[in-house]
Amino acid sequence: ATVLVLVAAGASQWWELKYIAGAVCKSTAKLNGKVVVITGGNTGIGKETAKDLAQRGARVIIACRDMTKGETAASEIRTQTGNQQVIVKKLDLADTKSIRVFAENFLKEEKELHILINNAGVMLCPYSKTADDFEMHFGVNHLGHFLLTFLLLEHLKKSVPARIVIVSSLAHMGSRINFSDLQNEKFYNRNLAYGHSKLANLLFTQELARRLQGTVVTVNALHPGIVYTDLIRHSILLKLACKMCTFFLKTPQEGARTSVYCAVAEELESVSGKYFVNCQPAYIAPQGRNEATARKLWSVSCELLGIQWD
């Protein structure tokens, strides 16, 4: 189960996760004139990532469902960084209509897009479905970002060099893609559903990187570490475990460091299709490197979303 994987990681790798995992992105790259979209930038590691990139001078667009929290976060970031180009736009990844409206407005209002950070997500929620009848974890964490990336990709290609950063998780290691029950309708376990969606993130990263070869648009995935944020709100067990093991956990600021690293590090300019932990390349479980599975998931995702992405 995902909870057991996360707790075990916290117990057995505490030094790495708290200290070595606290590795700082050493890049001093400035992002003046660059446009960034970050989903879920209103809270947790997303907010800290947005703040770091704003500090570097980027025009940061926080795409989130809760506009009140988004405006509060943006105001704080503008005050702390002095960067007034921190904007909030409505985006509900659990509704493809919302995703399409966001993308349509973005393409009208912004001439370029240099960095797309697919950060938002849900974790360990009770069985529920999105507006389009997708299981919530799979629909938000994978399909929502899959569609958003599809709709914004041409803008990224026009703005090269450009980067796509996908927040995945070590939870992918205990997961499998079950195409016979992709929506978890026959059997639902919220731990497995979360891990399943994070594995889908990695497979998407692998296949997208293959398709983007030669475009100067890169895509990389990452595990932010075991971070104490509101993401665990649906699990009483995990909340209790985190409260007991606070010392072993990362703060949101520490958890954002690998996202920032993937977004700005100069040495990653031509690196694509990789997975990072603690600002370093990391091991991907075999099921996260299976090309046949990645291609089939791509095809099925396009079919579910009603798009053609060759």
Quick overview:
This protein is α/β, with parallel strands linked by helices and 310 residues long. The protein is 45% helix and 12% strand. The protein contains eleven helices and eight strands.
First-last Cα distance: 35 Å
Percent helix, as a range, is 40-55%
State the major sheet.
Answer: 8 strands, mixed
Written as H for each helix and E for each strand, in order along the chain, the element string is HHEHEHEHEHEHEHHHEEH
List low-confidence stretches: 1-21
User: What is the global morphology?
Assistant: globular
Annotation, overall tally of beta strands: 8
Question: Strand fraction band?
Answer: 5-15%
Rg, alpha carbons:
18 Å
Number of helices: 11
Class by SSE composition:
alpha/beta
| Sequence of strands across the biggest β-sheet | 3-2-1-4-5-6-7-8
Mean pLDDT: 89
Enzyme class: oxidoreductase
Catalytic activity: all-trans-retinol + NADP(+) = all-trans-retinal + NADPH + H(+)
Keywords: Lipid metabolism, NADP, Oxidoreductase
EC number: 1.1.1.300
Keywords:
8 strands, globular, 11 helices, alpha/beta, 310 residues, 45% helix
Layout of SSEs?
Elements: H1 2-12, H2 14-18, E1 35-39, H3 44-55, E2 59-64, H4 67-81, E3 86-90, H5 96-109, E4 115-118, H6 136-158, E5 162-167, H7 190-211, E6 217-223, H8 236-244, H9 252-255, H10 257-264, E7 275-277, E8 280-281, H11 291-305
Parallel strand pairs: 1-2, 1-4, 2-3, 4-5, 5-6, 6-7
Antiparallel strand pairs: 7-8
Helix pairs in contact: 3-4, 5-6, 6-7, 7-11
Family: Belongs to the short-chain dehydrogenases/reductases (SDR) family.
GO molecular function: all-trans-retinol dehydrogenase (NADP+) activity
Catalytic activity: all-trans-retinol + NADP(+) = all-trans-retinal + NADPH + H(+)
